[in-house]
Write a structure and sequence with these properties.
InterPro entries: Harbinger_derived_prot. The chain has about 575 residues and is an alpha+beta fold. It contains 22 helices and nine strands.
Length: about 575
């Protein structure tokens, strides 16, 4: 029997309302042809939306999800597309046709989602959504030098997990903002807010496999359930009465300050730290700490929230002018004037990812992951942490959504001045690997160095860039819960675990910084310029955040010509600085 997803069936459940009533031909903007140059603009719009609907309803099947072969998955999408009444009279599409077209749509929409999130963060009072969309188009054109013509596709996918703003960045330690964000994220997973609008649709947890399969089974009679509940409640009351009598006769236990029987604070903190450091089972400490699994889980939750609220402002802060000056000092000693750290991404496997979300969080390995973007310095201090994007996004897509440059765009940090090879520069930069774009704020290695100068530069850059790799390794070595797959069902809890571990990691770095650092900073004095790199403390940072200023700074950040010139100057600078060591070797 042929498969028809538009008839009543149990294979697909909870189809999105926005995809059940498809309206075509309402967008008159020119679009990229769908499968060839023969298609008209109206048919392109309808075909794109129908393909998106087919992909969403196939990948979000709460029972199957992505637990299917490659050919089976795209065959189901092609079948869904071909049997649709909206595709009546049109040419039948093969699975490979749907796959190729979807890859193009997905790539462009992911880039536009990053631009839209950046424009949303830069939104000021008085701007409406049309202004944000206009700025988003400007940003994507500035970053990728091409116009975005698939706005109708983005509107269909914006509430999806890969398109919604479900990530959190913790570069600044405003505890009030974090609390509000945590409350909003936690509230979005509650069933009572299912009717609050389109925004809640993006973060509402889909039904799990067992819950979906249970819908097809016959439920018990309500009267029988009520009778069973009354029986259980009567037994529970008898048990409570028996426990009260037993406690009244037993020897009284030690009470806490509120007069309640309980465990000491040391026991609870020890249990929470053991879970984070060793990723041990929740009931593993029951023998000598006398904590059950439920109590340990609650202790871990309260411990993480307390760490974030009490120490987040200090250990998740943006670099101060003194911090910037110290980083510039160390960067110049290593041969990179103006360098303030290394940036890279890490994937954390999510073992208990919901089946309906696995398709959007799984990479080539087939295991769902969550991305963590980090900026680390020479002492392994993590200055910037952006956690939450789905694992299917690469480093460039994560960069589009990351607020790593928001402080520079909004003019909230002092200007950095440094000279390389006799030229003055005013933008600090990060060391990266080869996937990052060639912007003025990124310096990559030379993939195939030709000559001794390029070879020496590649060696120095790759050695200095290992700071962020070492930070990832030390973070996972200190906290096994980050190294092993995440077992939580709730993404908000996973984000709190990562934030708490990064705060504790920075605490350890601050305590042991002088013990294992490879550089002598005893001669460095806070607040004073050193050598050619220094922070301009007289620079006015409260620049009005209008669109003109923001786009001007963004253009400077993405300047490829400045990147090329800076890289050439760094090659010459490193050759003059370390040529003797190279000759001795």
């Amino acid at each position: 029997m042929d498969f028809n997803p538009f008839t009543e069936t149990k294979n697909f459940v909870d189809l999105l309302s926005s995809q059940q009533n498809l309206v075509f031909g309402t967008d008159t903007s020119p679009q990229v042809p769908f499968y060839g140059s023969q298609a008209t603009e109206d048919s392109n719009f309808g075909d794109n939306v129908l393909l998106i609907s087919s992909w969403l309803n196939t990948s979000k099947d709460a029972v199957v999800g992505n637990e299917q072969t490659f050919n089976t998955f795209w065959t189901r999408i092609a079948t869904y597309y071909n049997v649709s009444p909206q595709a009546a009279g049109s040419e039948k599409r093969e699975p490979r046709h749907c796959k190729n077209r979807w890859q193009k749509i997905n790539d462009l929409v992911c880039k536009f989602c990053g631009a839209f999130e950046a424009a949303t963060r830069e939104k000021t009072s008085g701007q409406n959504e049309n202004d944000v969309l206009k700025l988003s188009h400007h940003i994507i054109y500035t970053n990728h030098k091409k116009k975005f013509t698939l706005e109708h596709a983005w509107k269909e996918l914006r509430n999806d997990q890969k398109g919604c703003e479900g990530s959190t960045a913790k570069t600044d330690g405003n505890s009030k903002k974090r609390k509000c964000g945590d409350v909003s994220q936690s509230a979005s997973s509650k069933a009572t807010e299912a009717d609050s609008g389109d925004d809640d649709e993006a973060t509402t947890r889909p039904p799990r496999v067992k819950a979906t399969k249970a819908r097809s089974k016959k439920t018990m009679d309500e009267g029988k359930k009520m009778s069973q509940f009354q029986t259980m409640w009567s037994l529970k009351q008898q048990d409570l009465v028996f426990k009260e009598r037993s406690h009244s006769r037993a020897k009284p236990h030690k009470k806490d300050g509120l007069g309640r029987l309980g465990l000491s604070t040391l026991q609870k903190c020890t249990a929470a730290i053991r879970v984070l450091a060793y990723d041990s089972a929740l009931d593993a400490v029951d023998e000598y700490l006398k904590l059950g699994a439920t109590t340990t889980r609650l202790c871990v939750k309260i411990f993480m929230e307390a760490i974030i609220d009490l120490f987040g402002d200090q250990y998740l802060r943006r670099p101060t002018p003194d911090d910037h000056q110290r980083l510039l000092y160390i960067g110049e000693l290593r041969g990179f004037p103006g360098m303030i750290g290394s940036i890279d991404c890490m994937h954390w496997e999510w073992k208990n990812c919901l089946t309906a979300w696995k398709m959007q969080y799984s990479r080539g390995s087939g295991k769902p992951t969550i991305v963590l973007q980090v900026v680390a310095s020479y002492d392994l201090w993590i200055w910037h942490a952006f956690f939450g994007p789905p694992g299917t996004l690469n480093d460039i897509n994560v960069l589009d959504r990351s607020p790593v440059f928001d402080d520079i765009i909004n003019g909230q940090i002092p200007q950095v001045n440094f000279s390389v090879n006799g030229r003055e520069y005013h933008l600090a930069y990060y060391l990266t690997d080869g996937i990052y774009p060639k912007w003025a704020t990124f310096i990559q290695s030379i993939q195939l160095p030709q000559g001794p100068k390029a070879d020496l530069f590649a060696q120095c850059q790759e050695a200095a860039r290992k700071d962020v790799e070492r930070a990832f390794g030390v973070l996972q070595a200190r906290f096994a819960i980050v190294k092993n797959p995440a077992l939580s069902w709730d993404k908000v809890k996973i984000e709190k675990i990562m934030r708490a571990c990064i705060i504790l990691h920075n605490m350890i770095v601050e305590n042991k910084r002088d013990d294992y650092t490879q550089y002598d900073v005893s001669g460095f004095q806070q607040g004073e310029g050193s050598r050619s790199s220094h922070v301009d403390l007289t620079y006015f940072t409260n620049i009005p955040t209008n669109i003109t200023n923001q786009m001007g700074v963004r253009t400077r950040i993405c300047d490829r010509q400045a990147h090329k010139q800076l890289k050439c100057d760094l090659v010459e600078h490193i050759w003059r600085k370390f040529r003797r060591d190279q000759d001795n070797n």
